[in-house]
Structure formats: C-alpha cells, structure tokens
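User: Hey, quick favor. My workstation is busy. Could you predict this chain's structure for me?
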Amino acid sequence: MRDKIKDIEYFNTFINEDLARVKKFSDKLENGEVKEDRILPVKSKVHDLKLGIMIAGYSKGDELTLLEEEYLDLLAEWEEVWEPEYYNKNLKMISLGILFQVDRAFVKKVKNMLKKSNINDWLYNFLLDSLDGEQIEVSKEMLFPNSFTTLQRVVYEENKIELLKKYLNNDWYNEDCGCYEAHKSKQNIYYGYWSFEAGAIAKILKINDTQLRDTQYYPYDMVHYKE
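Assistant: No problem, here it is.
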C-alpha cells in the first residue's frame, strides 16, 4: 500500500467497478451501440477511467512495471481523445511520461498536440523539454500561475526541498483542487491525491529528495524508478 487514506479493499472495489464500466462502454463502442456524435466523448470517458484505474493501482501498491504497461497503453490512445482544456489530466499524462522515462517520440507527439491547440505553458514545456534533452526557455508564462508558481520557483531557486514541501503541503491539495475531498464521497471516486508533476520536477532536477520519502502526495518510488 502506498496510499495512507484508504485501504486495499477500497482500491480493489474501485478498480473492479471502473473496469466493469470500461468494459460496458467498450462493448457498446465495439457493437456499434453509440451514436456517431457520442463516440469520441465515450472514448474519452474510457480513457479517463483507465487513467484513474492506473493511479488507483499505484495507490494500492501495484508493481511499477505493471503500471508502466498500463500507462503506455493510455499513451497510445491519448492523441485520439486529446482534450486541450483538461489541464490537470494532461499534466498528469506528461508527468507520468517523465517518471516512466518514455522515449522522445512521446515528446514530439505531445508537442504537436499542444501546437495544434495553440497552447503555450511553461510547466508543460519544461517537462517536455527535459525529455527532449535540452531546456529551451521561450516563455516563463503559465496558464495557471496561482497553482504552479511554486514549482517554477523549485526550478530557478536554491531552496528546492523547502519549496517542494511548500507545494505539496499548501499548493497541491486544497479547496481549488478538482479532486478536493474525493475520499469523503459516498461514491467510489477517489483514486489517490498524487502529485506526479512534483515528482517529475524532482526527477528532472535530480533533487536529493530523501526528506520527501514519506511526504503525503509525493510518489517517491516512482521518482526513482529505473535508477
């Protein structure tokens, strides 16, 4: 178990329920039971469910090698269901690519997706450029500076661990977070509050993050995957 909020029985139930939902939607798509104008939204919903299942697997302690396989499947399907307005989901997908150390073809694909959508964001660019082998500073402007300025400070300032702690403890999980208090819902909608973007920044900068090993929301073992 990696999560400290729910137990393994909860995550097993969550995963089984959402796997059943994925199968239901996938069967309807395969059998031609979805209206043409609903095909893309349904495929997008399936992709969202699979991402939640993968993160729930991380929360309950699944092996990283298995989670990497699930992520690569999600990556292969991502472009078809790309939704530029879903910033947090897209940030998760990019950050997981850093943590799983995917190849440079991933970078090219995502940069093209962003370009076609006329999106320019410092955090996206910094993460992607790190996989591309170089940092090209075009702009430090962010789409959501109130949420992610502390992460930008981690990159450019010296007190990196203190700033990461501030981000994790104050900036990441709060009332403005889209998943805030999901664990209190009567429905099984909670899959973990992991800050994969904080882990990706730490991995890129090779920060000595020993102090963060037991910090809530920080995916420590994923940061050190394949080292």
